[in-house]
Amino acid sequence: xxxxxxxxxxxxxxxxxxxxxxxxxxxxxxxxxxxxxxxxxxxxxxxxxxxxxxxxxxxxxxxxxxxxxxxxxxxxxxxxxxxxxxxxxxxxxxxxxxxxxxxxxxxxxxxxxxxxxxxxxxxxxxxxxxxxxxxxxxxxxxxxxxxxxxxxxxxxxxxxxxxxxxxxxxxxxxxxxxxxxxxxxxxxxxxxxxxxxxxxxxxxxxxxxxxxxxxxxxxxxxxxxxxxxxxxxxxxxxxxxxxxxxxxxxxxxxxxxxxxxxxxxxxxxxxxxxxxxxxxxxxxxxxxxxxxxxxxxxxxxxxxxxxxxxxxxxxxxxxxxxxxxxxxxxxxxxxxxxxxxxxxxxxxxxxxxxxxxxxxxxxxxxxxxxxxxxxxxxxxxxxxxxxxxxxxxxxxxxxxxxxxxxx
Length: 407
Hints:
The chain is α/β, with parallel strands linked by helices and about 400 residues long. The chain folds into 3 domains: about 1-35; about 40-80, no CATH class; about 135-405, no CATH class. Helix content is about 45%, strand content about 15%. It contains 15 helices and 11 strands. The protein has helices spanning about 1-40, 40-45, 65-80, 85-100, 125-135, 140-160, 170-175, 180-185, 195-200, 215-220, 240-250, 290, 340, 365-375, 395-405; strands spanning about 105-110, 115, 165-170, 210, 260-270, 280-285, 295-300, 315-320, 330-335, 350-355, 380-390. The strands form 3 sheets. It has a 7-stranded mixed sheet with strand order 4-3-11-9-10-8-7. A hairpin with a 5-residue loop joins strand 1 and strand 2 (about 115). Helix 6 crosses helix 9 (about 195-200) and helix 6 runs parallel beside helix 15 (about 395-405). The radius of gyration is 28 Å and the shape is globular.
């Protein structure tokens, strides 16, 4: 009986022994893998998060630096340990696809798969939506916005009488019904900022027909088309086309030269970088410029006029008819100008579009030269300033920089 039980006991001991060995190897393998990946940039890959990761701290040379060194090392390791990129991507994928949750403070998950960009700064989440809803926007704030916006427009009209300001209602306003219930309830407690500000601006002498805020028109359009794609911030696709037509015909009094048709294709979402690991694509209708006989070009390389002067202004585009003559339009914008600029070629023989988001990178001499090229040498027949609605409190800084340059 003892002899027959001995192999069984020995087998159990061996199994237990090898099982412990396998467990120890697996355990330490799991612990060591991130460290091995960490020391090999080849396998770690570039950072994928929408923030600046903690830098590797320098060896301390003073007592004060030595006191801060452990915390700096801890922050560096937390941000840069091996496989961190993979874990961040897997976490985002699981939360988004299984729970419908968005792991990004600057994005808000809405109804029916809508995603809302809520703030330009991660340390002030919901700041843009709060402003549009009127939260913490006092009467004094509104009056100051009216003052600065009206001062800017008067200066713009002095520079060029045929100047207009288009304030584009953004997705949280146009698709307010797609915001989550808790955010709709919060916004319902306040008076929205833009309608009152625009009404006051339009009541000022000389500005009635200069200020354009097509909220009612865009809300009507959404019944038949996607004014904004579900998972973008910027104005893309063919949503801007009817608004360009409205502005050109009703405000700038232009006759249509032709009607652009569009081609459908997928493009990456402009909020993709906030959700690393989650593939966000946008079905987009883009104008077929070639079919219309229009030369469309995006980027500073399209403007030899800017060489050595405005090379730092990256968001620019131009559109020119090959055979159809027409007036010249200049669009001076923030990042919302790119989506609508090309559609104005339905009304203008040539369209120049420049974003002022990077104008502060130009020195004073470059700014003055840039202004001369745009306003004197190009000599547009009309100027349209295009900014999204939340920029109404600061757009004059960029526009004012251009208009005052060299004066």
